[in-house]
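Per your request, structure below.
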């Protein structure tokens, strides 16, 4: 037990592995970000950052502020031991290196960046064009690579969401017509209420192995994605907050290689059997490292805070920015948003809820209307995430000796500093 604990600590404290580059349609531009110190901006907000970058044939200045709320203060990490037992931790996670902002002179632009590894990594959207930026490997001049992310110009033969009218009809037959606990009558001035979406993410074993069995790398990947969708959803006054991350570190608990419709059904059934109400969350998503043909993801429609509040997002690409677009779309379905039609508009050619891959960060007028209908019927987004774990969840690391445990000294850090007598006695006997 001591050996397993030490190995887990070493794994968690190991350095983040560099993100491998995805396949892009065009070669990257090499950019060197230059730090800008504008006293007019930073005198009142010293934690803001500004950089000057030249890409797309022009020089741009980006200004960013730290992202405040995108991970719960009681963030819960769930993994598995070698024996298949659930292991829960509440680890320290660095969150002061994630930023959101704009390109100066373009109020409709969006910048989602993290500086956790020393450089700039993330997404920049300006004039309807999206770039993914990341540090260049092995450079002494702070060189970065800026990849242009192409959007699909036509709905024909493009990557798309798997939610069809036939699938919506099928879902309606199996979903509960309403949940009286989560329903309420309409109330006035709903838009003035700030909303918080408690988000539960599950990473499959294939993704975990692909990231070199490194838990910390997996956490960093997910935080980048959640920082991105948090920026998208703030425009509709919703803060997406990561409350729980579960990594299938030993094996997959469902077959992720079936068609995406079967995977969604299996995942929802798995979470109902194994999660239930033991952990508090509004939406739960599975991120398998698996492609599903032309389909990027699939979600249950309008099932926020119900037993069918789940979705599947293909995480086969290395592009964090592209996955954030997919995730924002599928989360929109959970919030009741249908695919946009020709009458829907957001001021640019394509919006987040387009049926095909759009790489847009804006919601349409139709999405606002669908969201209004959902929010006025459900109250679960109005509570700020505090306690994540329900009173009936039992797990190794909660400092409570429960059925099947000989001892429980708390989280990993506590056990190292103050191991219980049972562990010390076992170690002395084994080492004598």
């Amino acid at each position: 037990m001591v050996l397993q604990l030490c190995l887990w600590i070493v794994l968690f404290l190991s350095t983040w592995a560099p993100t491998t580059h995805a396949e892009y349609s065009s070669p990257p531009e090499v950019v060197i970000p230059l730090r800008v110190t504008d006293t007019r901006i930073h005198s009142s907000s010293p934690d803001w950052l500004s950089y000057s970058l030249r890409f797309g044939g022009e020089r741009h200045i980006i200004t960013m502020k730290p992202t405040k709320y995108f991970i719960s203060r009681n963030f819960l990490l769930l993994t598995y031991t070698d024996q298949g037992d659930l292991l829960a931790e509440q680890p320290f996670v660095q969150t002061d290196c994630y930023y959101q902002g704009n390109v100066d002179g373009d109020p409709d632009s969006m910048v989602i960046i993290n500086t956790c590894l020393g450089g700039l990594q993330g997404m920049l959207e300006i004039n309807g064009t999206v770039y993914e930026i990341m540090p260049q490997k092995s450079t002494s001049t702070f060189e970065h690579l800026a990849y242009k992310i192409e959007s699909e110009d036509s709905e024909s033969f493009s990557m798309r969401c798997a939610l069809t009218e036939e699938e919506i009809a099928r879902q309606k037959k199996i979903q509960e017509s309403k949940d009286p606990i989560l329903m309420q009558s309409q109330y006035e001035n709903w838009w003035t209420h700030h909303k918080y979406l408690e988000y539960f993410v599950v990473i499959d074993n294939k993704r975990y192995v692909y990231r070199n069995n490194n838990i910390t790398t997996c956490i960093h990947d997910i935080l980048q994605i959640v920082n991105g969708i948090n920026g998208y959803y703030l425009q509709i006054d919703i803060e997406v907050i990561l409350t729980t991350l579960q990594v299938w570190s030993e094996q997959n608990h469902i077959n992720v290689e079936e068609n995406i419709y079967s995977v969604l059904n299996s995942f929802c059934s798995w979470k109902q059997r194994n999660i239930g109400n033991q952990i508090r969350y509004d939406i739960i998503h599975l991120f398998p490292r698996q492609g599903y043909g032309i389909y990027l993801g699939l979600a249950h429609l309008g099932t926020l805070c119900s037993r069918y509040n789940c979705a599947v997002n293909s995480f086969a690409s290395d592009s964090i920015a592209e996955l954030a677009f997919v995730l924002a779309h599928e989360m929109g379905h959970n919030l009741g948003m249908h695919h946009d039609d020709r009458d829907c508009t957001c001021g640019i050619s394509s919006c987040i809820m387009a049926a095909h891959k759009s790489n847009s960060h804006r919601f349409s007028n139709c999405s606002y209307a669908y969201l209004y209908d959902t929010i006025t019927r459900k109250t679960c987004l109005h509570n700020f995430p505090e306690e994540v774990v329900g009173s009936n969840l039992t797990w190794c690391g909660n400092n409570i000796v429960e059925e099947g445990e000989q001892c429980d000294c708390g989280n990993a850090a506590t056990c190292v500093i103050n191991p219980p007598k049972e562990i010390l006695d076992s170690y002395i006997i084994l080492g004598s």
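The radius of gyration is 22 Å.

Regards,
D.
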